[in-house]
Amino acid sequence: MVSAKATENVTWTFSLAPQLSVSRAEAVGELIYGSGTRYDLEDRTLAHIRVVTGARLRRWESFYLSWMSSNDPETGRVSVWLSPSIPLQFHFFGNTPPKINPVWIRALELNAAGDRGMVVMNEVEAANYIRQRPPLD
Description:
Layout lengths: L12 E5 L2 E4 L4 E6 L3 E6 H16 L4 E6 L8 E6 L5 E4 L10 H11 L5 E2 L3 H10 L5
């Protein structure tokens, strides 16, 4: 689990997904899964995951959510099964809701519909993902 606690005058950088760097100056929230397993994710990323996850769970759809567990490629990925029957909490560190990017949301929605489930990606990866998809008629 990637963890970070707020301390004064400290800047930490780590990765939550390929090419997704998080500065400690950014707020880090928590995804709390099931009976209390906690995963630290940057607030803005967590907000986008929350939008897509909320929409899918309201439709009673279950799926995997996966991300890189740290910036060390040897540590692998984390995958959790998301289902309406499993408790899920989103705790945000920052007081101001992050701005939501509709392109990022769309990329996560399309990604979540695949066999691999939702694989967390950053905004640049999301824009590239959308550009590579043929338009729907």
